[in-house]
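Forwarding these from the shared drive since the link keeps breaking.
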Amino acid sequence: MNKTLLSLLAAALLAASPIHAQDIVPLERIAAVVDEDVILQSELDRAVANVLAQYAGRSDQLPPREILERQVLERLVLVRLQTARAGQMGVRVSDAEVDGAVGMIAQQNGFTPDQLRQQLAADGLSFDEFRSSLREELMVQRLRQRFAQTRIVVSDAEVDAALAGDAVNRQYQLAHILVALPDGATPEQITTAEEKIEGIKALVERGEMAFQAAAVRYSDSPNALEGGSLGWRSLDEIPTAFSGAVQSMQPGEVLGPMRGPSGFQLLQLVEVRDAQNAGSVTQYQARHILIRSGGDVSDEQARARAQTLRARAAGGADFAELARENTDDPSSRERGGDLGWFTIDQFGPDFGAQVAGIEDGAISEPFKTQAGWHIVQRVGTRQAAADNDNRRAQVREAIGQRKLEDEWNRFLREIRGEAYVDVRSAAAPAGTGG
């Protein structure tokens, strides 16, 4: 509806009946326009309230309200951009799949779905909004899964090099602070960012602020509100630009500032430990349905059939029964497609990446290997003693995760830089990207 038509409609409504001040209902404010979508101020307010609730009793660690709003708004923008890209790529999440995710979360917290709904209401959260957030999260997971399948490759030479260095025996808990730079930053922007990161490091080194508190208050990274935590990582999961230095650091020591593709960074080594599972490897249990092409079945027909079967499984049909009736894999047909326990590369890197990229109980999108089109339902995971082959699989997985994180962060910067983002929240600086 164009502005002229809106004006005419408003004039007609005004002429039709008098409006009193007490009858006026304010329109919903817009916090940001993201391409063809919007983020409402009420959405931003709820997200900020959630952060404040998480920091109850520790609110002094949070940045000023306007900075906190900017951080939270940027998170919301990135989620919208990812779900939009997922939709453009044909990623869909059905109501039945959202129901399944709700049931899993309820079970993990010792609730029935109805009890979870009641708990959310008691916490002042809308069940519909909770479902919407879950749908977005599932879409982002599937987008990341497709991304890993198409862009992440780990060579045997990389695995050999990592095994030669015995890089999987120790794990490092890391945190970081990022002062971001835009693409094509001017010399003035670079100087300002460099001065800011040096100032943050000085605060930490003088003991005026803990590293995690400084990350919450000053970092431009999406994980700022988690204190910049990068979690526990093996050496293979640490970017090669930092891995050498990290091995010689002491807990509490800060590395940097370092200039990277996103801007200037500080990296802190929080703690070091011997990997508890250095002699073990992750194994997966999964069911699959294979649809082969060839003969009278074209590749497109095989893909469409796999998509139809996936939709039936997501809609509640028993996956094992579907496999018995439809799979072209005779070795697993009688077991309902069950492949038993296997490592990430046992059935090839493409198959393993798909299984590793979904959660237990989830069903993959159709994907293609040399054997044909597959859909996979992941049943569970476990740690098993690592022989040489399993150790290689463990190292391959660690390298793949590190590469995925690097490439995924680069991808997020790309879609953020290409997007039209008009920030209108009063507490956030106005600006347009893309």
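-- next protein --
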Amino acid sequence: MEKASINIKKVVLLAGALCAYWIGSGFATGQEVLQFFGASGTKGILAAIIFLIIMSYLTYTLFGIGQKKKFENPYNVFEYYCGKIIGQVYIWYSVVLVYAICVVMLAGGGATINQYYGVPTYVGTGIIAVLALGTTLLGVEKLIDIIGVIGPVKILFVAIVGIAGVATIFAHPGTLTNASKLMPTLGFKAASSNWAWSGALYAFLALMVSIPFQVDCGASAGSEKEARIAGLTGTVAFTVAIIFLTIAEVVYDKLIAGQQVPTLTIAKHISPALGLIFSVLIVVSIYSAVASFLLVTVRKFAKDRTKKFNIIAIILTVVATLFGGIIPFDKLVNILYPLAGYSAIVFAGFIVVKGIREKISKTDDMLDEAS
């Protein structure tokens, strides 16, 4: 019966939606992967495996609990794991964090369009804001359908860049080893001086900004098994993208030194046509991430596709558009990101403890029934 409930198309859409949610402007430009993985050279691949191990357990759990509990509001998951008081602290911190990142990405989106296409910044910001708002107003199910298709496309093009790096390694076997040794000398910023901690920290950052979204995705699945498979599939696909991009950045280390957008630099080097596609992909990545983050924020205050939801979504979009460029986002990120990482570690602890307690409770119940 459980097997019959697995819808492959739904699994792919949910996995793609998770990838699209995580692949925002930072990932699409290559800066996130460079700082958390690429800067460590070949050890960045091992860091990606650490990310995979941690994130697989967390997505498996959150997608599953989203389907199992079907919370009226996805933010209720914080109270489910942490209790009323601590849960409320997490709820409001998560709302502030997700919206702040949404504002940052929207502001950065306008600047990105201006840099690539020469369109005035306010026009670029306005275009992304309108597209993101329009997608958000369609509701969570439609958003998952839309960005669920975008996610695999993002993975595909990141893979193309990675495959070019792998091809270079095969043509020149010593390239990866030599480049890996050279990486620390090229002045790249690293998220941490320890490659293993970088991988773990990236997992916890990804967790903290996506908890309500993962719960929503899980609730959208047809069964608990389908939800868990989708969560694992999305995590594996995202990790593959990290590994491919890490390889490409290490192989093309000298090429990307001093570049703000490593992926675009590598893509242009491979082919001018691929460079053009990547410039579009970066904009699409920003749009899909802004739409997702906006929807997750508004879902705290109202059910999607209601009048209240629409009004709040419009107001938050206008505020983000008007004030995005004013907020010193470098300081904002510097404060919020480290705090997000450490608060996510604590939340992951709550998830583990809750899971252990439930298993003990089930075991006790089974023993009572046996006796």
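The chain has a mean pLDDT of 89. Residues 329-370 form the longest helix (42 residues).

- D.
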